[in-house]
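ESCALATION

Customer reports they have been waiting on this structure for their group meeting. Please prioritize. Original submission:
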Amino acid sequence: MKNKTPQEQELCESITKLLQIMAKLRAPDGCPWDKEQNHSSIAQHAVEEAYELIDAVETGDDDLIIEELGDLLLQVIFHSQLALERNAFNFQTVVNKLTEKLIRRHPHVFGSSNIKTSEAVLGQWEKIKKAEKLGTKH
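Update from on-call: job pushed to the front of the queue and completed.
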């Protein structure tokens, strides 16, 4: 395995700390509100935070964008913690699945496809996505 750069190491530590904070919030001695939540009770927050991100982007205020991206990330972290408590999946599972999807849906970057235009990329993305949903090869 390749050695991590200082920036990569710092990122790993930041993510680990974030996951530990979420686990602490849900622990028996954690936050009463956080402990009461479940997937259903917090699902709507993801939609609200997405709209708040759109508003932040429209302002062009990077500090506000950072704040709203953090709020969206909290939703991912929270749902991942809830799933971990059910022994269903964890944050790493989410990251790994997303990584696999991005590689799979970008064969023009990571594979042998040689498409060159944005339109062709979008068409290829939709074709691959449809095949995935049908459980077939693209």
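Sent to customer with the following note: The chain has seven helices and no strands.
Escalation resolved.
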